[in-house]
Amino acid sequence: MRRAALLLLVSLVVAGPSVHTQAPAPATRPFVEVLASEKLGGREAGSADERAAGDYVAAQLARLGARPLPGRGDMFQSFSFTAGSRDAGSRVAVTAGSAAPKAFTAGTDVQALSFSDDADISGPVVFAGYGIVVPESQGFGYDSYATLDVKDKVVVVLRYFPEDADQQTRAILSRYADLRYKAMAARQRGAKGLVVVTGPRSPNAGLTVPMTLDTALAGSGIAAVSVSGAVASALFAAGKPLADAQKDLDTGNPHVAGFELPGVTVTLKAAVTRERRTGRNVVAYLPATAPVAGVDKPWVAIGAHYDHLGRTAHSGSLASRDDAGRAHLGADDNASGTAAVLAIAGTLARQPMRRRHLLVGLWSAEEIGLLGSAAFVATPPVPADQLAAYLNFDMVGRMQENKLVVQATGTSPVWASILERANVAAGFDLTVQPDPYQPTDVSNFNQASVPSLSFTTGGHTDYHKPSDTADKIAYEDLDRVASFASAITRRLMDLDPAPQFVKVEQSTQTASRTGVRIFTGTVPDYAATVKGLLLGGVVGGGPAEQAGLQKGDVIVEIAGQAITNIYDYTYALDLLKIGQGVKVVYMRGAERRETTLTPAARR
Amino acid sequence: MRFLVAGACLLSLAGALTSAQAPASSPERDFLTRPRRLTVEGRRAGEGYWSKDGKKLVFQSEREPGNPFYQIYTMDMGAGDVARVSPGMGKTTCSFFHPETGDVLFASTHHDPTSKQQQDDELKFRASGQERRYSWDYDPEMELYVQNAKTKTYRRLTNARGYDAEASYSPDGQWIAFSSTRQAYDRQLSAAERKQLDTDPSFFAEIYIMRADADGSGVKRLTTVNGYDGGPFFSPDGKRIIWRRFDEAGLIADIWTMNLDGTDQRQLTNFGAMSWAPYIHPAGQYVIFASNKLGFENFELFLVDIDGRKQPVRVTYSDGFDGLPVPSPDGTQLAWTSSRGGGREGQIFLAQWNHEKALAALRAAPAR
């Protein structure tokens, strides 16, 4: 076993363009091939596969001389999380006047929202329009509850936000249209329960809201269900038809108010079963080989998540129907990052005179909300203020055209010079992005005020699909990334004083866009530095492909809005209407072209 | 990895992606392979010139707190170490390695007692949130200096009032060519000339040559045409000088070559645009330069044969600025300044240079 690994290492060194002649190149391939094997089944957090993968990673760390963190008996840090939720028999009964109650049961007619409390309630009903409250600080008056008293009542609201409002109004309202936010607004006004209806004038009309993964440990303090068009008809049977009410509200006019549904009572049972699981981080360290007494922040941390989406249908999966049931092996996401971390640790383990301890963290449950690294940061076995720096690796195995993206460089003034110096020899086409608010574990370390970097080679068309397999990894380049990061880690071992942390202001433009329900079928290239939105691909049969857009095109304008980056684009999406064609201006090579794209609805 | 929430939305419809189509390959890759950003630190960097052995690059960069003007740095192209060469005070520009000693030639205003005040004023201006277009002020305090590679001491080479800068050594290290506005300060100007000096001092810039061991004397003027003459470099055989010449309005520039005594001046380009920053490839057959032929703020690199007989060939295809190209001494790499990394400010980029493709493209180019 060891000999085979050694032979492989030698052959890689001979075959590859050896950049560093003094240090043997790290060999990431064996790690990726094991982690992304069918046997480990895609490493879903909390599963037996994840446990087996964690055992493998811990064994590799032990083999290169790493130890459990001080005061701990093994390399595992367990944490508990909600892995999924399903409706546990929610029911709604509508009583209008003296008529007999109409009862509806879980399934097509009633579906608890994933964040609902378990509760049995009953009460009179108030229709609160779209149920949107824009905070006063936004200087935009819109409060669905302004004229309504909902205390101890059941509130009925429409899903989404006004359909016919002007672009600016839609842009603002969409930010406060998330169902969790609507539930909070109802609860704060004393409502007993929330019933969500997808209006007849909206996409997905009359359908209940699919239960999404919500990793919260408990409910949101209110009973909340979505109901079908049939239930809505029962609710609105006596008074103004819902379609008419929605039409008035769809203008976006803030003075169009909701109303009580006189004589209507709803009896509601909401029940959600949340599946609790235990995930395991693997955390270990290579002790310093020089005295750390007097060293400013005597720890440097490197990490990657090792979990992925597993064998079953997962809300993050982008698998096509043909692939249903196949394991998501996650070779790039994130066997590649895990392999890079193991390789870096291996390189550092052979180096003398380490003035800081090297903490190695392989996180679980990243794919369902950065939960493993959050658990580490929440109860760190090593205090976060003792960490001089954290380097994160997420999807580093699919390098194209020598491009490497380093994110979170704004977290310390030392990063630019350290990256510049290390890259002179490494020779990557480096893109640096100051923003640490990234959808990867680095954001948790940034929150803990640890100067951080996150390395990635960017997205690709196998992202979150069973086709993200080990044979597609660019191993020579992955080894180069590990070498590059080893040099940076080595530098951090000796850096005195420790890097200064800088808090990067969070751009409001990066705020959650949970209200977005538009589907355009574009796959942005996140590594791009061009002015505009570079398409890394288009979804087959999607609106973008139908509009003639293709990989490599750069969108520079959509619906009259100039697009200079991904944020402009996501912002512009708020302004589009499903089914309504908009002009898209794009560059294909040096040629400026126009087309019409007709957005579709996202389910 | 979990992408941006919005990104996840864009991606989240189940369905096969079309098989990846080959990216529209940029014609740039014909000449430049494995392009990459070399400088990362600081607000801006540019004008990277190679040492004779190709192991070091000397460049200008704004990268230290307290001074918003360029200072001169060297980069070790093996280890990546960066060291400041200039004193750190005032403005500097346009550095060059001595081919034998490795001494660094550059222009600086650090002797100007108002330097600190100017730095503070500029920082204050920036802090006010105001912006101005990039402009170079042709500071008459600018003088040529050389830093001894061993002793790290500075020697001042020029003493004339006027902008003395844009200097380079001859391949044998015996001569320095530079640009200077000194002719506007050593004589009585007419009223029209004084007004010209106030609005655009570069109008008076001419090419000069002097011995490398100069003490400020023995300077010879090579050009006499109105309009900014600047950016002189020697040909690899040391027999000619290549430079750029602006028209009187300072908008149109072209590439010229001449003998070391100023005779036989030949024009290589006539785009009717701003063509400048020429550098001769070490093989001697062609020139790499920058021009905004394709758009006022869109500078691209071009090639032209050494005699300017053919139409220039476009090299780069990238928005924004690509300029100040300098091939490595062995002709296999190109360092240039580009804004392709994002933002308005430039950084130094590096790529493998395909000499054979360049020769083939020039052979195929139509006659001018």
Class computed from helices, strands and strand pairing of chain A: alpha/beta
CATH architecture of the domain at 39-285 in chain B: 6 Propeller
What pattern of helices and strands is seen along the backbone of chain B?
A: HEEEEEEEHEEEEHEEEEEEEEEEEEEH
How would you characterize the largest beta sheet of chain B?
Answer: 4 strands, antiparallel
Strand elements of chain B, count = 24
Mean pLDDT of chain B: 90
Query: What's the CATH H-level homologous superfamily of the domain at 39-285 in chain B?
Result: TolB, C-terminal domain
Main sheet summary of chain A = 9 strands, mixed
Number of domains of chain A: 3
What general form of chain B does the structure show?
Answer: globular
Q: Count of helical segments of chain B?
A: 4
Task: Give your account of this protein's structure.
The complex is a heterodimer of chains A (603) and B (368). Chain A is α/β, with parallel strands linked by helices. Chain A has three domains: 2-79 and 284-494, Zn peptidases (Aminopeptidase, 3-Layer(aba) Sandwich), CATH 3.40.630.10; 89-270, 3-Layer(bba) Sandwich (Glucose Oxidase, domain 1), CATH 3.50.30; 516-601, Roll (Pdz3 Domain), CATH 2.30.42.10. Chain A is 24% helix and 25% strand. Chain A contains 14 helices and 25 strands. Chain A has helices spanning 2-15, 29-35, 48-63, 167-173, 179-188, 229-235, 242-249, 331-349, 371-378, 415-426, 442-447, 475-494, 543-546, 566-573; strands at residues 67-68, 76-87, 91-96, 102-105, 110-112, 119-127, 154-158, 193-197, 223-227, 259-270, 272-286, 299-305, 357-363, 387-393, 403-407, 429-433, 452-456, 518-519, 522-524, 533-538, 554-558, 561-562, 582-588, 591-597, 600-601. In chain A, strands 1, 2, 11, 12, 13, 14, 15, 16 and 17 form a nine-stranded mixed sheet that branches. In chain A, strands 4-3-10-6-7-8-9-5 form an eight-stranded mixed sheet. In chain A, strands 19, 20, 21, 22, 23 and 24 form a six-stranded antiparallel sheet that branches. In chain A, helix 8 (331-349) crosses helix 12. The longest helix of chain A is centred in the C-terminal third of the chain and has 20 residues, at 475-494. The radius of gyration of chain A is 26 Å and the shape is globular. Residues 1-22 and 508-515 of chain A have low confidence and may be disordered. Chain B has 368 residues and is mainly β. Chain B has a domain at 39-285: 6 Propeller (Neuraminidase), CATH 2.120.10. Helix content of chain B is 11%, strand content 35%. Chain B has four helices and 24 strands. In chain B, the strands form six sheets. Chain B has a four-stranded antiparallel sheet, with no helix packed on it. In chain B, strands 2-3-4-5 form a four-stranded antiparallel sheet, with no helix packed on it. Chain B has a four-stranded antiparallel sheet with strand order 6-7-8-9, with no helix packed on it. Chain B is globular and about 55 Å long. Chain B starts with a helix and ends with a helix. The chains are: A alpha/beta (603), B mainly beta (368).
